[in-house]
Each structure stands twice: as C-alpha cells, then as structure tokens.
Amino acid sequence: MSSLSSQDPGPILKLEPSFERAPSVRQILALASFQQEVLDLGVDLGAIAHRAAERARTLSWADGAMVEIITGDGAVHRGVVGTGAAPRLRRADSLPVSPWHALDGPTPQVCQDTEDDPRVDPEVCRRLRTRSVISVPLHRRDVRLGAITVTSSRPNAFDHAQTSVLQLLAGLVAAAVISSQVIIELRRSRRRAEDTVISSEAGFRTLFFENPQAMWVIDAETQLFLAVNDAAIATYGYSAEEFAGLTIAAIRHDAAHLAVDFGRARAGRSAFSARHHRRDDRLIDVEVTTVTLAFAGHAGVLELIHDVTDRNRLDRQLRQGALRDPLTGDANRVSFAESVAHALSRMRRRSATLALLVIDLDHFKTVNDSMDYAAGDSLLQAAAARVHEVLRPGDTVARLGADEFAVLLEDVGGARDSLDVADRLQEAFRSPLEFAGGSLVVTLSIGATTTTTADTSAGELLRNAELAMYAAKTAGRSRVEVFATSMLAPARDRLDLDQDLRHAVGRDQLRLLFQPILSMDGQSIVGCEALVRWDHPIRGLVLPDAFIPLAEEIGVISDIDAWVLRAACSQVAAWRAAGLPDLLLAVNASGCDLGRGEFVDRVSATLLETGLPRDRLEIEVTETAAVTQPAAALNELRLLRRAGITVALDDFGTGYSSLSKLAAFPVDRLKIDRSFLRDIRHGDDESPLVAAMIALAHRLGLQVTAEGVETAEQLAFLRRNGCDLVQGYLFSPPISSERFEGLLRSQQASGATR
What we know:
Elements: E1 15-17, H1 25-28, H2 45-60, E2 64-70, E3 75-81, E4 88-91, E5 109-111, H3 122-127, E6 132-140, E7 143-152, H4 160-189, H5 201-209, E8 214-219, E9 225-228, H6 230-236, H7 240-244, H8 255-267, E10 270-277, E11 283-295, E12 298-307, H9 309-319, H10 333-347, E13 353-361, H11 364-369, H12 373-390, E14 396-401, E15 404-412, H13 415-428, E16 433-435, E17 438-440, E18 444-451, H14 458-474, E19 480-482, H15 488-502, E20 510-519, E21 525-536, E22 540-542, H16 544-554, H17 557-577, E23 584-588, H18 599-610, E24 617-622, H19 623-627, H20 631-642, E25 646-652, H21 659-664, E26 669-672, H22 688-699, E27 703-706, H23 712-720, E28 725-726, H24 737-749
Parallel strand pairs: 18-19, 21-23, 23-24, 24-25, 25-26, 26-27, 27-28
Antiparallel strand pairs: 1-11, 2-3, 2-7, 3-4, 5-6, 6-7, 8-9, 8-12, 10-11, 11-12, 13-15, 13-18, 14-15, 16-17, 20-21, 20-28, 21-22
Helix pairs in contact: 2-4, 15-16, 17-18
C-alpha cells in the first residue's frame, strides 16, 4: 500500500484511468447526491446549485432560496428558486445582489427581521421583499465554495432547527463540488495519452491525499487497500499502516452484497450505498462512487466515499415530523421550543409579558381506542383548528405529541389575560367537534405559566406549563391550573427516580423473589413465579407498581425483563441440577418487546445459556397488553408455544377482552386476577363470575391458575370449581431464593413431591 502523505510524499505515482468502460457522470455523482432520487445532477455545477436551492427552500419553508457555488477559477454558478430567476454563470466580481453587507467565515448568519438588523442592507431587502434571512456558507478546509441563502417575507420565519438542516445540506453541496472537481480532473486525463503521468508529486497530493473527500484505491484482484487518503484515515480511525494490511471486507461485513458491488466496480460502472464499520466499531452510512484505473502497476478501483449518516438521520427526522407536526401542520416540540427562545430573546429589548399554555384533550385515549386511527387523527386536526379559531393570528400553536398541544402568547397584558385565553379555549370546546368519525364534545385540561423576565429558559417555561397541566388532570380534568413552585418537588422526585432507574440493572440493584405455585391440594409446590424488586440505596425496597410503569415509559423495561428472565432461569436450573423438584417457572413479560422480531430469539438464547428446559418456562403477558398487541406480536407468542414454552394470560378479567379474542389468543393458561376472589369470605360463598371463567377456560382447553389466594374459604371454592393451580399469601408471600430453596427441601424431605 502506498504510504504517501503530506509529510512523506514518496515517489511520483502513475495514475492511469481506464476509460474504455468509463462510468457515467450520473453514476459518479451519486456520491454527492442530496437524495437517492436526484442522481442526475452530473458535474454541471449550475444544475447542482439549482437542485440545492430547490431542496433548501423545501426544507426551510422559505419563500425563496439561492445557492451560489464558486469554483477555483472565480466562476460563480447560481441557482435560484421562488423568485423567478434562473441559474446562470457569473464571475465572482459580479455576484448577484445579496441582502448581507458581508458574509464571511464558516458560521451561518441568521436575520430574524431585516428592518432591525445592521448586518443587512435594508434597501436591498425591501427590494427583494425580504424580512427574514438565513445564509449558510459552503466551505471545505477554510476554502470558501459559496453559500446557501433562504429568505421569507415574514419576520421571525426561521428557527435553529431550520438552520441545522441547511448546515447539513451545505455539507452535501460542498461534497458535491469537491467530488465534481475530482471527476472533471479524471475526465480531462482521457484527452491525454494513456501512459501519461497525469500529476506531479504535488499535484497528486492535492488531488488525492489532501482532498477533503474520503477516497481510497483497492486492488481489483486481492481487494487489498493500495492507497488511502488523509480524509479516509480521519473518518475511519485506521492508520495508513493498518489499512495496508486490510481488505475492503474489514470495512464491510455484508459479504454477499460486497461481492455484487465489487463485481460491478471492477466492471467500471458503479455507484452504490453501503454501511461501513469504523475502527471503533461504529457504523456509518455511505454512498460510494467507483472508477477503474491502473495504479502503481496494479489494476485498481478508485472509490470516493461520502458519509451520509447525518443526511439519513435528517431524512428520518423529516419523515417523522422533526420540524413540523405532520398531522396538524403546526410546530412540534423542537420548533416550539425555538419559538419560545426567540420570544424570550425579544423580551430583552422591551418590557412585555409572555405566557405559555399546555393543553391536553381529556380522555382522548379512550375516545381513540373506540374508533379507528383515521378518526382519531381527524379529531386531533379538528381540535387544532378549534384552538386556532380562539387565538390571535400571531400566536404560536404546537402539537407536542399525541393529544397534547401548546400555545405561545406574546405581549399579553398580564397573567390574568393568559387565563382569559385559557377560559375562552374551555368555552370554545363546549361545542361539539365535527370530524371524520362524527361529532364529539371534548374537554380540556390546561396548564398556564407566565413570565415578565427573559432570564428564564424556554425549557423551564415549557416544563412549568406541563406541570400545571398535569395538576389540572390530577384535580379532576376540564379545568385550568396556573404553575406554582410547589409543583416542582414531585417533578424532581420523579426525575430522580427516572435517572436512578436507568442505572438499576448496571448497578446490580434488582432483586428477585419467588412465590410458590401449588397444586390444588395446597401442599405440593409445582412451580414458582419470579417477581422483581428494586433495592434502591436510599428508598429501600421499591415494589413493581412503583417502577415498572416508569420503566416502560422511559424505555428500560427491556433491560429489566432480560435481567429477570436470565436470573430466574439460572436459579431454577440450579435447583433442578441440585436434585430439587422440577418446577414450572413463570416469568412476566411487559409486552413492549413483542412484535419486534427479537423476543423469541432472546428467550431461546437465555434457555440455552442457562440450561433450563423449554417445557419448564411459562411466559406471562397481561390481558391488557395482549388485547393491544398487533398481529406480529401474537405471532411471536405462537412461536413460543411451538418451541415448547408455555404462554399464560395474566390478570385475566381486568383487560376487557372479548370472548372471540380470547379464543384466538395463543395461550395455554389463564391466571385469574386476585381482585375476583375478594368477595369470597365464607365457606358457602360463591362467585359465579370466577366459576364461569374457570369453566370457559376448560372448554377452550386452557388450564387455570388463581392468583392472590389468601383464605381457606377461597381455596375451597376454587377446588370445588376445578381450578388447576393456585398461588397467594395463604401459602407464601414472594420470598428470597434462599428461603424458597428451604421450602423445596422441606417438601422433598417430607416426601410430598410429585
């Protein structure tokens, strides 16, 4: 591999493009494309500028956009959309009129109001009918390549999120310009003699090693790296010496796709996307353009690498409504926070009162669950429209998520005025909302907060309004609550719990308890249910009801479920290996991981790791979780059963599942919730509902376990009605593994095992 670098140039290398089967310009420029569907830009910088201007306008919701690309010979390629001007080639000394007095350096410049910003020329802005401007320079390694400028006729039209998007676009445009220069240089060499050295030592260093575009040359036969430039070394983290001992397979782990892509590259026509592994094992998304060439006596492939990880992430964010709520068209949380920040900034220049309202549609989940999603979306759109009807034209509305909206009120007279707005919203929603699902009256829970100082932050204001909204919901809904500092303590407590819970598994703070499951004689232990507790260093032993819902909300429930499954299987397998009774282990699954395609593999891997037989494990899913699962999740439960693992429907009777759904659930056992046994207090008491549940389960071929058995009368009733298994405090509370093992040994010693 060549060891040329800027410090050690080494010998002059002969770079001989193989033009007999040269790639098309369109394929070569795939590296620098803005999206996979716009690969026809060619090396025409005017076309690149125009396409970039179209993208800039779309991404920023601007009235107009202009992209200027400056080449090394001073030519300026200009693309304009939204103003009626056409792209054209100009000299750098005759640039089009710009709203800025000067635009220097790599930092974006944002003007929210051209009438009050000394950095812009107000006369030019009036002529262009511009009130807001963003300009993002195009540059690579301190070399100015041009700029992207977007304009709006409205003041305060842009926010930080839009600036960030344009910065990403600027990086793509700069990469396209750099790539085009490499391609143009290669095309020029076609007009030279085939054996001519196309560059001197300094020329080759500029074209290849010092080029800010990552690139390398690979041996067409061995796939070894022959040369790697400085940009690729910086991107991938390998040294030049390390690259010399690697093949492209070290970067790409998808052997089948690599074979196809490299075969096309050797044929001389190639442009493709891939995922590359850096030295630190981080994956990056790339677009690769290849050119066949002779390199230092080898048949080689030159690959130009463009890292599109940020672009792909940007595209995903845009699809998910990263800047605007796709359902209502209003701002989302990110852009709303930026609007609040801008409003606070304006308050520093004048005395004013700013108010935030956070609005929640009461009982929306219940309404949404009773209709299809299309009707629910239509209801949210109708609610957003109703909010707009009450507000002033300049007020900002955002959908923060699900059924939660926010309103920014600037220049309100005082706190009382913001409450008047909240009251008007409450009054407006007393009339039915007309939507695709019909007509419905929806009430609001509203939290309000105000400030007269710019010293607070947008995040604090939004937090305060949300806390007030939660207080309104707690107080009975359909009301307005104003933020008070006393609301902060419970919020801080929940935040502390949130942060501690994220580290509970890693800090070994989870504890496992086991509750015996007995046969109907009430004496033989045939199984156990694994129950998790959180041994908090300050709060002590925290029960599941206090942390499992939070774990599901913050996304750590999968880690907890995995820990419980592994620890419980290991313990029961150890008891089994020690010659203790062969138990059925019941483990709860939250249901959050169902339907993702990994749950069955994870359970199977855990059983293989711990040595517990498949027929000794029972996975429990609550009825409520099962009712709401998609078809893919229910299919995973079927796969568990086919693998020999028992599936149980936990807390049966609390989830309101229909009989038709129950018959279709892929389960082996029903676990009757403890709440149905509480009314059985005497020996002759009957519970027709529980009796019907047991009979129904048996008719469906299912076994029944009753939870929460606390009295002899309850046990007698369950025995009369043919219940299969029982568990509860009548026999034992959840206990440690040591105490449970003692129960097993006592049972074994008394000869009461099965």
